[in-house]
C-alpha cells in the first residue's frame, strides 16, 4: 500500500464521523467522504507537504459540504422517492420534546458553530487547526466556540423555540 | 509563568472543557471555578454536552471502512475514468482523421483549401483569363514583339518590378512572340506569348509575389491547362490549350531554367 493510501485511510473513520454528524445520513455522508478522498487523491502532490494532513482533509470536506449545501439550496432538498413519507396525521407523542437526538440539536446551529463543536470537541483538532479549517483567526475560533456551546446547551434545554416547532 | 497573573477568560474556560489548558493555568481555573458555582455549573454542563456528542458519534467512528472508500478502489475508479476519457479522445481523433482523409480524397479538383492556395487560385484564374483573351488575338497578340527582345526584357522587368528573362521554349517548338503588361491583382503582371509552327499558343504569366515556394498546381478550365507555382519571388503560371501531360515538361523546363 502506498504512503498516500496509508495516510489517507488512517483518517477515514474521522472523516466519516464528521460527515455523518453534518448530514445525519449514512449514505450521503459516505458520498461526501468519497468526494473528499477523491479530491485529496487528485491533489495529493499539490498539498503543502509541511502542512497538516487532518486539517487539509477537513478543509476539503467542509468546502465540499458548504458548496453542496449552496447547491441544494438552489435546487431544493433532494428526497428519494422510495423513502419519502407521505403526509398523514402527525404523531402526538413528540410534543414538548424538542430534541430526540443530540445530532438534531447540533443541526440547529450555524455551519461554523456545528463544525467547531465537531472539529474541536469530537475530532480533537487544536484551536489552530480548527481556525485553519474554518478560515478565521484563532481568537475568533475561541469566541465562536464559546457561543456555540452556549447555544447548543440552550437548544438541548429547549429554551429557544425550535425553529420547526408545530403551532397548534 | 507568564499567564498566571492574568484574569480568567472565556478562552480559559473553553480550553478547560477541551482539556487543552496549559498546565500553569489549570490550578488557576480550578480555583476560579471553586469560587464561582454558577460558572462552574455551566462549564460542567458544557463538558457533559461535549462528552454526549462524542459518545453519540463514537459508534460511527468504530465502523469498519466501507470497500468503496478504500483508497485503492478510489484510485482505480479514477484510472478507469481517465482511461475512458483517453479512449474517447482516441476515438474522436480516429474519426477526425477519417473525416479529413475522406474530405481530401473527395475534394473536387482545383478547389483550394487554404488562404495561400486561394490567392494562388485567383492568380491561376488571371493567368488563364489572360491567355484566353490574347490567344485569339491575331493583330496584336503582344505589345512588344520578340524582335525587340532587349527592349522587351527591360520593359517587363521594370514594370513587374523584378529582373526577368523570357525562357527559351524552342526545344518544345514554341517561339517567343513577345510580351505585354497586365493587371495582376495588386502588382503588374507580365505575359509572355509563345507560338508553335501550327499557330498553337502558350503563355507564361508571371508576377512579382511572395518569397515562399510552392509545388506545381494544375488547373484546367474551359480547355485551357495551367500550371501554377511560386518560386524565387515570382508567381508563375504556364497556360496552353494542351493536356496536362504535354504541358508538364514545359512547366518543368521553365521552372528549372528561369532566372
Largest sheet of chain A: none
Structural class based on helices, strands and sheet pairing of chain A? mainly alpha
Mean pLDDT of chain B: 83
- Number of strand segments of chain A: 0
Count of DSSP-assigned helices of chain A = 7
Task: Report strand % of chain B.
Answer: 15-25%
Pfam family, one (chain A): Sigma70_r4_2
Protein name (chain A): Sigma-70 family RNA polymerase sigma factor
Domain RNA polymerase sigma factor 70 region 4 type (chain A): 101-151
InterPro entries (chain A): PhyR_sigma2, RNA_pol_sigma-70-like, RNA_pol_sigma-70_dom, RNA_pol_sigma70_r4_t2, RNA_pol_sigma_r2, RNA_pol_sigma_r3/r4-like, WH-like_DNA-bd_sf
Structure description:
The complex is a heterodimer of chains A (168) and B (259). Chain A has helices at residues 3-23, 26-42, 53-75, 102-107, 111-122, 127-134, 138-156. Chain A is an all-alpha fold. Chain A folds into 2 domains: 3-75, Rna Polymerase Sigma Factor, Chain: A (Orthogonal Bundle), CATH 1.10.1740; 102-156, Arc Repressor Mutant, subunit A, CATH 1.10.10.10. The model of chain A is unreliable at 92-96 (pLDDT under 50). Chain B is α+β, with helices and mostly antiparallel strands and 259 residues long. Chain B has 3 domains: 3-62; 67-106; 115-257, MucB/RseB, C-terminal domain (Phosphorylase Kinase, domain 1, 2-Layer Sandwich), CATH 3.30.200.100. Chain B has helices at 10-18, 23-35, 37-62, 71-106, 115-135, 149-160, 244-257; strands at 144-145, 175-184, 187-195, 201-208, 217-221, 224-231, 234-240. In chain B, strand 6 (224-231) and strand 7 (234-240) form a beta hairpin. In chain B, helix 1 (10-18) packs parallel to helix 3. The radius of gyration of chain B is 45 Å and the shape is rod-shaped. Mean pLDDT of chain B is 83; it is low at 111-115. At the A-B interface, helix 1, helix 2, helix 4, helix 5 and helix 7 of A face helix 1, helix 3 and helix 4 of B.
